[in-house]
# Entry
Amino acid sequence: MTALDKTFLTKVRQAGLWEMPAGRLAQTHASSEAIKRAGMHLLDGHSKLDQLVREDSEALNAPIPDEATAEQQGWVAQLKKARGRAFDQLFVDLLRASHGKVFITIGEVRASTKNTLIRRLATQTNNTVQDHMDVLEDTGLVTDATLDDVASTIPK
# Structure
């Protein structure tokens, strides 16, 4: 396993650790059915990815964290305080930016890893993240500012 492979395992695990709570919050805090639907996609997709990443980390003897980063925990705290339309916009802003940024890492890992378990996880993660970006974009709330934020992180 490469350093990128290990980083990828960590990122997949930590994504689930904040996005599953965010998906649950969408069920009670959102004003829009589209946001609730996006939240269900997050719950479903990350539940499956979390199971897979935990199995892979054990098989590869590569420890993964049991909590989200401080920044991710802060995002969940922000979401807990928001309601209605304010929740909807914050949910989309945070999650679409996060998915767009990790999408770049997934491509790097999928293109370069020699580890078959990591390659399988990267493929599944790619499919899940694409689904999540699609359902977030379907809300009609993705802004140019969010996309510009993601674009600013892409190496030139």
